[in-house]
Amino acid sequence: MNTFLSTSMNLAIAKIFAGNGSDRLQRESVLFEIILDTNKRRLLDPYNLTIATTLNNIGMLYNDMTEYLKALQYYHEALDIYEKALPKNHSEKAILYKNMGDVYCYQKDNQQANEYYHKSMEMGITTLPDKHSSFVRIYRALVKLYLDTYNLYDALKFFLTAIDISKLYFDAFYLDISDMYNSVGFIDSHKNDLPKALDYYHLALEMNTKRFPIDDLEDVNIYNNIAMIYFKQCNYFEAIRLHHKCLDIQLNATTLLRDREIMVGSYWNLALAYFKSEQNSEALDYFQEALAIEENIFPSDHSLVKKLHQMINTIKTVCDKTSMMPSTILFFSTDQSYSS
Known about the structure:
0% strand, mainly alpha, single chain, 15 helices, elongated
């Protein structure tokens, strides 16, 4: 097994970095590029399933490289072999249909994505055992599609089904389960079913505690979502408490200045919660903290930097007005909350 990978295509350079130890031969490696001769593929066995698997894998690589047309080309070639060599209904086709649906989903061709995802699901139902782990990935793909098209009802239905199956394979899907609980809570929040949203957010936190230390970075997004529920309920004290918890976790985990951008959302949301609770001085402090980070990352004409300046100027204006007219206060609407 190679323990070193040279970033050079030059063997001599690879040998230099491999050193002079007794395991030198095992540590030498060179990057290389495979050039595929598509004309030669016509000479290969059109019924060879190994070739079909290779074509599918190449398609996945092109998909990861965002070269979607090439990905589809290889997926279709794999499908041609599957159609000739496999029965009408086969689980390998279900996987391939799902991969093809992913490409169309990334291309925002939702109609085609929906068609291939449903082909994958129907093929899986006829060829795989009930509640097979493969269904989790198929249902998650459908959920993403439905969320992208604002079909919250169907997204919620497939999320809950995916969660039920994932529980049977906890070791493989524990992170997925937590993420799905969090996402279901987010959907319920958008439907204004706030008590149910809170229930799912707390289930997501409970799932995280099975694998991570308490108050891990993995919890920040969930705490933030819970805080936004309290924000909607005008319980600003709880919202502020939880946003501070998010910030404390991030501060403890973040050492490099360039990584501090992850805290902008916490500063932003704290500022809004303080402003809504009429604590303008604290709101101003946290907006300025957010601005200090963003100005180190983005140019002065970036939209986030401009918006933060706008927020700060608005608060200063409100402070000036309230110093003269204590009964006058301006509130931001809840849709001003930060989202990265």
